[in-house]
Amino acid sequence: MENYRVYFTGVGGQGTLLATTVLAEAAIYAGHNALASEVHGMAQRGGVVESTVMIGDIKSPIISDGEADVLLGFEPVETYRAIRKCSAGSVVVSNTVPVIPYSVAIGKGTYPDVEKLCDFMRSRVRKLITLDAQSLAKQAGSILSANMVMLGALSRSGVLPLPREAFEEVIRTKTKAKFVGANLLAFALGFGDIIGDQENR
Amino acid sequence: MHPLLTNEVGKKLLLLGNEAIVRGALEAGLAFATTYPGTPSSEIGDNFFRIATESELYFEYSTNEKVALETAAGAAVSGLRTMCSMKHVGLNVAADPLMTLAYVGVRGGMVIVTADDPSLFSSQNEQDNRFYARLSNLPMLEPTSAHEAKEMTKAAFEISEALELPVLLRTTTRLNHCRGIVTTGPLKPPKTRVGFEKDSSRFVTVPANARVCHKVLLSREEKAWGMACQSPFNTVIGTGRWGIATSGIAYNYVADAIKDLGIEDRVRVLKLGFTYPFPDKVAAEFIRSVDKILVVEELEPFLEDNLKVTAQTNGLAIPIAGKAPELFLRLYEYDPGMVRKVIARFFELDYTPPKPVDIQEAPEAVQVPMRPPNLCVGCPHRATYYAVTSVLRETQTEAVFPTDIGCYTLGLLPPLQTADFLICMGSSVTSAAGISRATGKKVIAFIGDSTFFHSGITGLINAVHNKHNFILVILDNGTTAMTGHQPHPGVEITPPGWDKPSVSIEAIVRACGVEQVTVVNPIHLAKTKTAIKEALESNSLSVIVAKAPCPLYEARVLGKKKKQRFMVGPECNTDCTECIDTFGCPALYKNTAPDAKTTMIINENLCIGCGVCVQFCKKIRPKKI
After folding, report:
1. Would you say residue B309 lies in a domain?
2. A110 contacts chain B (CB < 8 A)
3. Hey, which residues 58-77 in chain A have their CB within 8 Å of chain B?
4. Do B177 and A86 touch (CB under 8 A)?
5. Given B14, B407, B482, which is nearest A28 (Cβ)?
6. B55 shares its domain with B127
7. pTM assigned to the model
8. Long-range contacts for B501-510 (Cβ within 8 Å, ≥24 apart)?
9. Does residue B165 share a domain with residue B149?
10. What ipTM was reported for this prediction?
11. Mean pLDDT of the region B20-47
12. Which of A20, A63, A107 sits opposite B577 (nearest CB)?
């Protein structure tokens, strides 16, 4: 089978690492080989959190510039910052809700227009899928499940060779019992409610 | 039950490299484990911590790596299988016991995990700890994947017992924090109780004994060399005439690159896992079988130098290269694309790298703000730093700030900027002495509670005895926060079932002989400022213990969260932005909404109600909920 490289980026506290594990486990559940990598430590104190999942016959746990098949961005500026991981053939799935960086909060920078970021990315990659993961998560009953919304959108994009059931099974068995209901609903909302879903080239 | 304690054999688990090491140790019958937490090694100890509560394993978070290694050594010379894990710079702290433990050796298998951090994701340097194997004459293994990490850990215990030497398991961040499929083997019940068999000629390293011990070590090293040359971890893959030698995580980049470049039939790879003593028999045979060799290893040219020595010793003269301006750097971690490119260049292959989307070159590119890590909302360290900088501003005093290792190092960033010097754990206290002597300036040093226990105490005693003059602020948040809230000897808020006594920092400071000691809660701004003013005025060595729990830890252990929230009143409509210019809480920011009625705004979803801001700005008030 083909190999797939998925790059995750977001801000500390957004649950990117749980989403990373769920995707890797879903790939294994679907019968593929999977490999992931995470960054811990200093990076988590409100900074950028990056991680990867490889599906298929890949040994390297990290992704070089231009080599991600999918970029899953949990925050628009971070998606844009990581766009170097993509090439013209990549698919980008991005949340559109900003998390204001501290530098902006104290007036040492300005937060860019999200639409402009999206326009740029849309013009450079195969496909850009955007969604408001926060409101969908709220709708699902827990703002913390925005990461599952993102996985729903990723699953819907159809880029990866994983059936929806693989994600749902892993969410059921590997996420905290207390949140399984909200997580499954969040995943479903992400799966069904993506906007801006059109091929660009 | 802890998932790593599963009795199921042949089960495929998706494990972090660090979890795989833990499983490997359990499959080897580990009885005793110690650590001092440090990224990227921390999850090893954290898993043992939980496993110890439901198995026969003894585990402790020791006060520092030297203590951890010596404690583990005591158990290992008694005959238990032991593991001691630490980050790379931790082995510097433990280097003293390491060097002589090698002389006396062990009876129970002992594995020392040293986790290097190329690219310095969470460290102050990127030293290559493979040189410690050579320095100490101890055998070393370097895994390439999570599964291999488990297998090597298991094998390391056998090697250790066969040689009666501790074995180094050297990893790098990418190995520790990658997740891969690991197949479980059977768990081995540990041997947990042994007697101490006395043998002073072996274990008491007075010079007369140590001279003999050194000879014994060299003969054990010789035996280890024989094992390395026979080891299944040192293999040759492929039959081509182009040679690539590699070890550790870099092997994966090499394997993928060979496939991507379609040169499987032209390349022969020397994959080394048992890298010290250097398996030069295997290497010599490899050198004879190829026309030229590219060495792919992160950081220092450890394998490269050994291969060159092997070639010279065997009268072989083929090109062997690795670190060179046009090939690999001695800096930072590598990545698959970079390794592919260098392999293509070295073997003169046509290769066009993938074209990344380039923001820099695009005319319509948007500038995006940086997102540096920051002290959390409600962090008591921010309150302490604010109190210190406020007093200095008000009294127009200049000060130098030696700092230390932990979350509070983030005081470096604006607007607090309370970090001027940092080299290693404990260096705040000691460098403060040197800076104050050399400059005659006011020096205010900061150290965390866990770091104080780790290596602050001896420096403080030195400062008392040698009459140094500075202020030491101990930022006591009741946990080792940075690495994941591990307990330390001073913990007061503890998880259920915790039965260890708490050691008082204040009592230690007084016992060191410090006369000016104040304990304050930094959340109480006025009292904290008074303490700082008094310390400045006293003009002698003084210690302020700024004590308030890490809110994240408190919420996690006690499930307690403050309900109070704060807001800015309508009178906050001037151009005053002092709160963000001097305090910088991430919940407080400039209101840029078009219909903004106030200059600032408090994000009530982020605010945790610490109530510090309300003490310095009259325009901030409690919010009615």
Report:
1. yes
2. yes
3. 58-67, 77
4. no
5. B14
6. yes
7. 0.97
8. B503/B453, B505/B449, B505/B452, B505/B474, B505/B476, B505/B545, B505/B547, B506/B545, B508/B457, B509/B460, B509/B474, B509/B543, B509/B545
9. yes
10. 0.94
11. 98
12. A107
